[in-house]
């Protein structure tokens, strides 16, 4: 179980610039990359591309055409989900900057983990060893022993 820091996500959304797909922060301009996806979420960066219609506007559903890709989880691992995830995150960030937007879809976990990794001075301190991808390093996943 993990807790998303809504204040951090709001801070990042307020600094998102859709013209450049990047955050304009006091320390400079930066963005989430495919390499970040590989590091943060342990997603595959090679493999068959995931193509087709985009996700729905709420960010909570996937198009039915993707269900066959998920029926066999071993087969699903052969696809490159990184670009689909990144494109969806960028789209949601661009949509979220408008006042009429109510809730951001996309991968808040990725965004939070990315911020903690690249801005280490804001990351929480934890007292246990973790053997999961980088996102777990910051306590975003809790697995009872």
From TrEMBL:
Q: Which Pfam families match?
A: PMD
Name the coiled-coil region(s): none
Q: Name one GO biological process term.
A: meristem maintenance
Specify the superkingdom: Eukaryota
Domain Aminotransferase-like plant mobile positions: 3-53, 56-128
What InterPro entries does its record include?
A: AminoTfrase-like_pln_mobile, MAIN-like
Annotated membrane-spanning segments are none
Q: Indicate what this protein is called per its UniProt record.
A: Serine/threonine protein phosphatase 7 long form isogeny
